[in-house]
Amino acid sequence: MERVKYLILGAGPAGLSLANLILRGDKSASFIVLEKESVPGGLCRSEEVDNAPIDVAGGHFLDVRRPKVNEFLFTFMPEKEWDRYDRDSRIDMGSYEIGHPFEANIWQMPVDSQVKYLKAIALAGCNLGEEKPEGFVEWIRWKLGDLIADEYMLPYNSKMFGGELDSLGTYWLDKLPNVSFEDTLYSCLNKRPYGTQPGHASFYYPKEYGYGELWLRMGKALGESLRCSVSVETIDVSNRRVTCSDGSEYEAEKIITTIPWTAFKEIKGADPDIIASIGELKHTGTEIKYVKGHLDTKAHWIYVPDPDKAHHRILVRHNFCRNSEGYWLETNLNRVDDSITGVSYKNDYTYPLNTKNKPEIMHGLLTYMHDRGITGLGRWGEHEHYNSDKTVERAMEVYEQECRS
């Protein structure tokens, strides 16, 4: 039994950031980070394929919008080692591509198509004063109109989330780019996007490495406090203790878990209602497949709503990763197309699902565990679809609130 002040489960961006903040803030504080993979990085790990990097859980990029986060991360991988890009993301509509978000870029279509979409948006419920619905599918129609819903949003999200649309809530949709009917009309008249832009409007990607290089360096900084190839199986809530697949046990004053709650084989000493609620959490997994060849596009990534194509997103590696060719297909694990050959990586946990009952479940779960010295952090600890920069920001907040001496 090893006893420490802080036990961090998972060496993805959340766990690595918190551990390094603890190390820098109080070198006397004992801590251990446990990671089931052989290297740190979590969903942001990279491998080399065809003499260039591939991010094994899809394209990951460092957003420029959080300067304090970037200032911290640049102490491990200086800004001079990154290229900065203005985002070019597009939607594959079969015979043509348009920019993302869809409703801000219909001005790129022929005029008759623009008129058709403008009419459909004008008749959307939000523009007719109708009450906001509670279901995801109904909300999409209410916000964007039937045409964008049927031709893009619903088929794309059904592919991405494995057909779970009826289980999704609407509480998270206010985070999406907000483009009003007036914004759409202005964009068609002036031939440029209006409204709020999506995340990663500008982003960094390493010049010589995959995104995983950043997290490898952060792991290296932890020295022997990082234990890789150690899979946590059981957590004992009453004693703040974990048992691992190799038989090792660890006990801590505080446990910070960044791994999925549903990944524990056993949760001991917790209220049965809490354990039952964890079983209601949903997620999806993905396959990332490398395909040789060059795509005739300047886009960094492309959304693919066509239901006849298995993948829902293409990461165009040669447009953001120096000296590379080829591209990556991102596909929900339920839709994998084995007829497409190439090096592939399967991830059982990629996206937490924002189901209707998730806010209630997570509020109860996180409050209950926090009262017992266990904190959930990051994409999986909080079951939130955080990008890596947001995850690091959350780690900084948790450090200030719970770890700073």
Write a brief structural summary:
It contains eleven helices and 20 strands. The chain is α/β, with parallel strands linked by helices and 405 residues long. The strands form four sheets. Strands 1, 2, 10, 11, 12, 13, 14 and 20 form an eight-stranded mixed beta sheet that branches.
Describe it for me?
The chain has 405 residues and is of the alpha/beta class. Among the domains are: 2-64 and 209-282 and 355-403, FAD/NAD(P)-binding domain (3-Layer(bba) Sandwich), CATH 3.50.50.60; 101-197, no CATH class. The chain has helices spanning 13-25, 67-73, 111-122, 136-144, 146-160, 181-190, 212-220, 272-278, 358-370, 378-381, 388-403, and strands at residues 2-9, 31-34, 46-49, 52-55, 62-63, 82-86, 89-92, 97-99, 202-206, 226-227, 232-236, 241-244, 249-257, 266-268, 283-291, 301-303, 313-315, 327-332, 344-352, 374-376. The strands form 4 sheets. Strands 1, 2, 10, 11, 12, 13, 14 and 20 form an 8-stranded mixed sheet that branches. The relative contact order is 0.21.
CATH class of the domain at 2-64 and 209-282 and 355-403: Alpha Beta
Distinct helical segment count: 11
Indicate the structural class: alpha/beta
Kindly state the percentage of residues in helix: 25-40%
The average pLDDT is 95
Rg of Cα set? 22 Å
The CATH architecture of the domain at 2-64 and 209-282 and 355-403: 3-Layer(bba) Sandwich
Uncertain runs: none
- Describe the main β-sheet briefly: 8 strands, mixed
Superfamily at the CATH H level of the domain at 2-64 and 209-282 and 355-403? FAD/NAD(P)-binding domain
List how many beta strands DSSP finds: 20
Oligomeric grouping of the chains? single chain
N- to C-terminal separation? 26 Å
